[in-house]
Amino acid sequence: MAELRTTTKKELVNRISDRTGQTKVVVKEILQCFLDEIIDELALGNRLEFREFGVFEVRERAARRAQNPRTLEKVSVPAKRVVKFKVGRMMRQRVCEDDPPPRPPERVPQVSAQAPPKPAPPPKPTRNSPF
């Protein structure tokens, strides 16, 4: 099995920016706005359905009795709301099947007027800080 890696929002912004020709600032604002809207809708208790992708919904989890595995003490766990995600058909086909198809080639939108090339980014300073 291939090594699993984490994809960050920054990496998604970079990919979308490269594919669409939009600036990273614009793509980041749109992506953040989209994520904020999802959070706001779920906070209101609404269900979000994205055809072929999946469905997000909020469910009530009932209060229950649980046991601390270290001390074996019985504890009360209060009721709470949790977000559930149900996988859509296209995601199930591409992610969950035994032999997923190869990633489709990237689509580049057709632009009528040619955009000027992006200037090369300045070199990043080297330091040991992760920030």
Report what the structure shows.
- It is built from three helices and five strands.
- Helices cover 31% and strands 21% of the residues.
- A three-stranded antiparallel β-sheet has the order 1-2-5. It has a two-stranded antiparallel sheet with strand order 3-4.
- Helix 1 crosses helix 2 (24-43).
- A hairpin with a 3-residue loop joins strand 1 and strand 2 (54-61).
- The protein is of the alpha+beta class.
Structural class: alpha+beta
Rg, rounded, reads 22 Å
CATH class of one domain: Few Secondary Structures
Compute the number of helices: 3
Low-confidence parts: none
Kindly state the number of beta strands.
5
State the strand order across the main sheet. Answer: 1-2-5
Proportion of residues in extended strands: 15-25%
Q: In percent, how helical is the residue content?
A: 25-40%
The end-to-end span amounts to 31 Å
Looking at CATH, the homologous superfamily of one domain is IHF-like DNA-binding proteins
Characterize the overall form.
elongated
Order of helices and strands: HHEEEEEH
CATH topology of one domain: HU Protein, Chain A
Shape-level CATH architecture of one domain: Irregular
Kindly state the mean pLDDT as a whole number? 84
Question: Biggest sheet, in brief?
Answer: 3 strands, antiparallel
